[in-house]
Design a protein that fits this description.
The complex is a heterodimer of chains A (205) and B (256). Chain A has one domain: Aminopeptidase. Helix content of chain A is 29%, strand content 28%. Chain A has five helices and eleven strands, in the order βαββββαβαβαβββαβ. In chain A, the strands form two sheets. In chain A, strands 1, 4, 5, 6, 7, 8, 9, 10 and 11 form a nine-stranded mixed beta sheet that branches. A two-stranded antiparallel ribbon of chain A has the order 2-3. Chain A starts with a strand and ends in an 8-residue tail after the last strand. Chain B is of the alpha+beta class. Chain B folds into two domains: 166 residues, Beta-Lactamase; 64 residues, Winged helix-like DNA-binding domain superfamily/Winged helix DNA-binding domain (Arc Repressor Mutant, subunit A). Chain B is built from 13 helices and five strands. A five-stranded antiparallel beta sheet of chain B has the order 2-1-5-4-3, sandwiched between helices. In chain B, α1 packs antiparallel against α2, α1 runs parallel beside α8 and α2 runs antiparallel to α8. The longest helix of chain B is centred in the middle third of the chain and has 19 residues. Chain B is elongated. Classes of the chains: A alpha+beta (205), B alpha+beta (256). Chains A and B meet through α4, β8, β10 and α5 of A and α1 and α8 of B.
Chain lengths: 205, 256
């Protein structure tokens, strides 16, 4: 299952979020050797993991173990593309209410089927966009991961030519959200059912 | 328009492609504009015949393709070998920095000149659960190698390969195009597969345990549904619309 974790329901998912930050440290710091902050030596947490951030988290439906996750930030708030890599955009960094950034896409190192987890995140993201009124997502990707990302089934286009940044070729992308892409992702996943588990609406006073 | 805006226009068009016949001219124009004269976008799956979900798009000379496939350079070609080790794009003159070249690999590189490969740029394609692929773009005159165009070439390559992937996997939604596949009965299909494997009506009748007259009728009916006159045309048409796949006809062995 894919849960949507926002500032509102964060308290219900303390353990799952801790597992997410641990796995992010293993993936991005230990494996990919990114030079990014680590908290308490085991958690990868940066300044964008704040109350504006929303997480899509894939949990094992039985054990609730963290299997993979992605972080979403409204482009109207401080985010990575604008703060760190604006030069990757040929034109201005796209900023609007209906444009959000996705970062820190990761699968748990021990996830039994990472491909399935990625497919669930790719699909969940389209559902999230349609539900929350997000028309476009932006993200930064390494060129080495590009073909894998393009194979998700999204409708993707570049925001500028790739550039070498501290030894790695990276580029900024834009993903259009629409029902066609949602159906494409669902077709690849072999399901037509909605995946997202949403924060329960606050009780009426 | 800037180089980026050309790439952006290419990507938008490539994302809408549903037929290989539309992708190829689009890709050729884009690569020509970037300054490349030859290209090969392909999965690293050996053999003259491959399943039809395997991408092989190229304007390489037939002589080279035949040599490549016959001598099974899929295993030894230094560009292909480098794709196993690198996820990022590389220029061919940098190959010695990516892998320690074997004598055979040096030999293969020695042949490149006579086929018009002076310098090239290759973007590897790694998608979990699929055969490795690559997009190679090259020039015959090293002084005309478009070094400035490599970032743009990276995108043209990646998005074109994905467009080709969607075509061969028939993964797109909502074009609303009705399928123009002929519908065959199960028995007609059995006969079609065996025809494709080179069997005569008599052979097929023995294999399926029906009379050769009945086999003949099934094959004739299938030809009629496709509107073709010969058995060869029948097989080609059925392969073309994926009713029949190469894997129905050959033992393909292990595809990584």
């Amino acid at each position: 299952m894919v849960v949507v974790i926002t500032d509102e329901n964060r308290a219900e998912y303390k353990q799952e979020l801790a597992a997410m930050h641990r796995h992010r440290k293993q993936v991005f710091v230990d494996f990919l050797k990114w030079n990014i902050p680590v908290v308490d030596e085991i958690y990868e947490i940066d300044q964008f993991d704040n109350s504006d951030a929303v997480y899509l988290v894939v949990l094992d439906p039985d054990s609730r173990k963290h299997l993979g996750s992605i972080r979403l930030i409204p482009s109207t708030k401080p985010h990575i593309l604008e703060s760190m890599f604006p030069f990757l955009c040929e034109d201005a960094v796209p900023v609007a209410e209906d444009i959000w950034e996705i970062t820190r896409l990761c699968t748990a190192p021990n996830a039994p089927n990472p491909k399935l987890v990625l497919g669930q995140l790719a699909t969940g993201l389209m559902e999230f966009g349609l539900l929350y009124g997000v028309r476009k997502f932006t993200f930064v990707t390494h060129m080495g991961a590009l073909s894998q990302v393009l194979a998700f089934g999204w409708d993707c286009e570049p925001l500028g030519l790739p550039q070498k940044v501290s030894g790695d070729e990276i580029g900024a992308m834009l993903v259009n959200v629409d029902t066609q892409s949602l159906h494409m992702c669902r077709k690849k996943l072999g399901t037509q059912k909605p995946l997202l588990r949403l924060p329960t609406a606050a009780r009426a006073a | 328009m800037s180089q980026f805006h050309d790439v952006q226009a290419f990507v938008r068009e490539a994302n809408r492609i549903t037929e290989m016949a539309d992708l190829q001219p689009l890709l050729e124009d884009a690569l020509k504009a970037l300054g490349f004269d030859k290209y090969a976008f392909t999965h690293h799956v050996p053999g003259f015949v491959v399943p039809n979900n395997v991408i092989r798009l190229s304007n390489y000379p037939d002589r080279w393709l035949n040599t490549f496939i016959k001598r099974n350079y899929f295993v030894d070609d230094p560009v292909f070998a480098a794709c196993q080790r690198s996820s990022a794009g590389f220029v061919w003159s940098q190959l010695p920095q990516i892998l320690t070249l074997t004598d055979r690999q040096r030999e293969i590189m020695g042949e490149w000149g006579q086929y018009g490969f002076a310098e090239g740029f290759t973007v590897p394609v790694h998608i979990p659960g699929e055969a490795i692929g690559s997009c190679s773009m090259s020039v015959s005159d090293v002084t005309r190698f478009p070094l400035q165009a490599l970032p743009a070439a990276q995108y043209v390559a990646s998005f074109a390969f994905e467009a080709a992937r969607r075509v061969v996997k028939r993964e797109w939604v909502g074009t609303g195009k009705a399928s123009n596949r002929a519908s065959l009965t199960a028995r007609q299909f059995d006969c079609l597969v065996l025809v494709g494997r080179g069997k005569s009506d008599w052979d097929i009748s023995r294999i399926l345990g029906i009379s050769d007259q009945t086999v003949h009728q099934h094959v004739e009916a299938a030809k009629k549904r496709y509107g073709v006159a010969s058995r060869t045309q029948l097989v080609v048409r059925a392969l073309f619309d994926s009713q029949l796949t190469f894997s129905d006809l050959f033992d393909l062995g292990h595809i990584p």
